[in-house]
Amino acid sequence: MTESTLPAVGLRRADLSEQRLKRRYAAEKRFRLYGASAIGIALAILGLLIGTIVSNGYTAFVQTYLAVPIYLDAQAIDPEGTRDTETLYRADYQSLVKGGLREMFPDVTGRREKLKLYGLVSNAAVYDVRDQVMADPAMIGTTQTLWVRASDDVDSLIKGAIDRNLEEDNRRVKDDEIRWIETFEAQDGVDVRFNTHFFTSGDSREPEQAGIWGAVVGSALTLLITLALSFPIGVLSAVYLEEFAPKNRWTDLIEVNINNLAAVPSIIFGLLGLAVFLGTFGLPRSAPVVGGMVLALMTLPTIIIAGRAALKAVPPSIREAALGIGASPLQVVTHHVLPLALPGIMTGTIIGMAQALGETAPLLMIGMVAFIVDIPGGVSDPATVLPVQIYLWADSPERAFIEKTNGAIMVLLGFLILMNALAVLLRKRFERQW
Questions:
Q1: Dist. CA 55–CA 70, nearest whole Å
Q2: DSSP state of 201
Q3: Nearest 5°: CA angle at 161, between 155 and 163?
Q4: Torsion 276-280-284-289 (CA) sign
Q5: Which has the closest alpha carbon to 359: 267, 284, 289?
Q6: How many other CB atoms are there within 10 angstroms of residue 290's CB atom?
Q7: How far is Cα 324 from Cα 338, in angstroms, rounded to an integer?
Q8: How many CB atoms within 10 Å of residue 235?
Q9: Cα distance between residue 185 and residue 191, in whole Å
Q10: Cα distances (angstroms) measured from residue 65 to each of 234, 321, 388
Q11: How many C-beta atoms lie closer than 10 Å to residue 111's C-beta?
């Protein structure tokens, strides 16, 4: 090779190197773009999901009320004038509500038209009137304009879920009912208020009366049983396997099975609970105590795995220093290792409990899908949980239950976000860098 060709060869090599470098930079740029696009698509889908839930569910937090002038006849409420609480509680308020509606619309005379008129207000209007009378018995014998809950169809109409401009045959609220509602509106007799009953009532066949409090109490009792069983057993298992268990084929088999149980579908735990807790031991169906035991079995692998990881993260020098000053192996674990690993254990426990809170399939297998109206008073009382309540409402044919379903989903998401935020807070607050 002559001296004149050497610079040319060097230039070609430099050009090739520069081209490879440009291609590499271009590939890295495309890879970053793909990653950013994937995150953007995921966020867009998440925003669409949450936006759909919120747009369909925020109306569950408000309820339509109608102002009805009602003559509180003393003969119907308290004929003896004793103002006894039991007498006021058992009075016939339904006839008073119907009488007030007839007074507002005296032109309604036919039986069928009267039934449609009475249908403007909820069956819970009786309880609304009763509560107001019991709060102020001085109203008895006078005509009072009382606010009562509207029916689910009227509530949907006021909230815009039913279009008034549709043909009469295509909407549930007919022309006569719309005319009566417009009379209420002309008299400022329609009000949309915060729906406290949604948070304080149990389930009901009537959408305007249905609430989530029974499901919230059932979820709390179920999670209490789950935590009481899974936390001590899971932590003790993790400590034994990580600190004391000999390394042999049996412990290896146990570790493999624990890891496999963490991937088992949750419905399998429901089948186990159905066969063992209900079929063998005869425990009550649809009770938080059984649901908590089933969810504890499902949560145990998560707590054990998280606990072992937290224990393994403690530096060996901590153990060696404690042993070097004469501490026993049990003292090393209880006084030094376990307190340092506790934040990680608590984080794993909270994540496992959040997973248990959102489970539905295992609880369906043990009968917690029953229609429960009363608020459970103990762990052995029939109850349901929030995810199952959402499932029941989603399966209901009434249009008004759609907003109840989405409203309950918003409450459940709120609890899950709080639990995960608590886990992050604990990890950031107590985590140590070694």
A1: 36
A2: -
A3: 105
A4: negative
A5: 267
A6: 25
A7: 18
A8: 23
A9: 9
A10: 51, 70, 29
A11: 6
Please answer whether residues 418 and 71 qualify as being in contact, where contact means their C-beta atoms are separated by less than 8 angstroms.
Answer: no
- Among the listed residues 223, 238, 231, the one whose alpha carbon sits nearest the alpha carbon of residue 363: 223
Neighbours of 393 (CB within 10 A): 25
- Say if residue 425's pLDDT is above 90: no
Each residue of 46-58: pLDDT tens digit? 999 999 999 989 9
pLDDT tens digits, one per residue of 77-97: 988 888 898 999 999 999 999
Structural domains present in the chain: 66-195 (no CATH), 213-430 (1.10.3720.10)
Is 390 or 12 the better-scoring residue by pLDDT? 390
If residue 70 lies in a helix (H) or strand (E), which one and from where to where? strand 62-71
Q: Once rounded to an integer, what is the mean pLDDT over residues 198-209? A: 91
CA gap 351, 305 in Å, rounded: 12
Which 3 state secondary structure label does DSSP give 21? helix
CA-to-CA distance for 266 and 229, rounded, in angstroms? Answer: 18
> Is the Cβ–Cβ distance between 380 and 289 less than 8 Å?
yes
What's at 423, amino acid-wise?
A
Q: What is the DSSP letter of 3?
A: T
Give the C-alpha separation, 181 to 64, whole Å. 12
199 Cβ contact partners less than 8 Å away, ≥ 6 residues apart: 211, 212, 213
Rounded to whole angstroms, the Cα distance separating 66 from 209 reads: 15
Which tokens belong to 380? Answer: 């052995």
- What pLDDT score does 400 carry? 86
CB–CB of 241/255 below 8 Å? yes
| pLDDT over 80 (residue 16) | no
Of 356, 421, 405, 409, the closest CA to residue 220 belongs to: 356
Per residue in 50-73, is it b (16+ CB within 10 Å) or e — as a string?
A: eeebeebbebbebbbbbbbebebb
- Classify 89 as helix, strand or coil: helix
**Which two structure tokens, joined as six digits, stand for 99?**
């009488």
pTM for the model: 0.86
**Cβ atoms of residues 60 and 404 within 8 Å:** yes
pLDDT tens digits, residue range 334-362? Answer: 988 998 898 889 888 988 999 899 888 89
**Going along 235-307, which residue ranges are E strands?**
none
